Amino acid sequence: MWRHIASNALTLFIVLLFLFAGGISFAVKKYSAAGPLEQAICLQVKSGANMRAVALDLQVQGAVASANVLRIGADYADKTGQLKAGSFLVPAKASMEEIVDIVTRGGGNTCGTEVVFRIGVTQSDILVRELDPATNRFIEVAKFDPTVEETPEEYTSTVADADTLFRLAVAEGVTSWQVVDAMSRVELLEVDTTEVPAEGILAPDSYDFKKGTAVSSLLERMESSQSRILAEAWAGRVDGLPLATPEEALILASLIEKETGVPTERRQVASVFVNRLNQGIKLQTDPAVIYGITKGEGVLGRGLRRSELNRETPWNTYQIPALPPTPIANPGRASIEAALDPDTTEFIFFVADGTGGHAFAVTLADHNRNVAEWRKIEAAAAAAAADGG
Question: Model confidence over 211-248: pLDDT tens digits?
Fold first, then answer.
């Protein structure tokens, strides 16, 4: 009898063991399988929330089939304690495993409503926008220039919302003075300095921040980023460049940045400057002359005068036979990389071609023809403007 009981108990144990193993296998598959979410959502994880609450919220929103499986999976992966507060974009069909990774990896918010303080070359403004999870595209809610326009209600209410994200967007080609001047007028920042950093050392990029962030802290991030970008590009530079130091590369990159806004042209413009430097030809670039007049404090707002082209200043590249002594703006990564890896060409000249780009030439005769074409385009545009007026 005891042998029979023992045999039955062993059989039951084996059956339970198989059921348990099967349950684990089922849960593992469910944890890593595509989820039921038909449309992306923006998941809000409040400060102090735990994985159990987040899992239940996800189940209510239809992102997971079982809150318990997600929670147990997070525990098993040892990620429960890594939960981050913030707003996270959960894509359609995301598995529980992918969702756990999204809410634990860190790196900042990936969705929600944000206020972007945009610092541009000719204008700075404030943009309020909201990410549509379904399309993963931002929808503009409000945009205004606080120096000339009244503050819209959408901005005021959005700033007051605890879940709002804040971002500072610095455009390529802005000067260090423009960056500091604009930041000093951002009411959400702590203006602990108005000292203008050296020209060129701030990386144009998008920087997230929180209310009360110090201006100096953001400037340090920009400087650190630009230093890293320059070091990487300098390490990978091509041979034969007329540049002795990374600082000279930064100067050249700033000239490229100010001469063209066409991404595909940067390396061509770089080749013109490199060819001129190698051949001892003056660079003759207008943006450098303009910087000698404004020192980067705003825009000139008019054309250059002949007297200004003839006046000797450290930045007048019609007069000096080399690079100017400093950068004339803060160049972006693409312009830095172009300066250190230019196209191989024989171009010596370029002039605007009326399309937003430039016409390049090897000989002065070809260049003069290109200039003549540009003058015709300018004259036609002026005539059209006069007729319209």
Answer: 999 999 999 999 999 999 999 999 999 999 999 999 99
Output the six-digit token pair for 54. Answer: 């987040």
| Token representation of residue 150 | 């009244």
| Beta strands in the chain, from DSSP E residues, in sequence order | 41-45, 86-90, 113-119, 124-132, 137-144, 165-170, 206-209, 349-352, 358-361
Residue 86: strand pairing partners: 45
Q: What CA dihedral angle connects 210, 215, 221 and 225, to 10 degrees?
A: 120
> Is 386 a residue whose pLDDT tops 50?
yes
**What is the per-residue pLDDT across 143-155, written as a single tens digit (0 to 9) for each?**
999 989 999 999 9
Which whole-number Å values give the CA distances from 17 to 4, 14, 68, 102, 185, in the listed order?
Answer: 20, 5, 21, 34, 67
The answer to whether 88 touches 43, Cβ cutoff 8 Å, is yes
Q: Is the dihedral of CA 119, 123, 128, 133 positive or negative?
A: negative
Domains of the chain: 29-110 (3.30.1490.480), 113-230 (no CATH), 237-385 (no CATH)
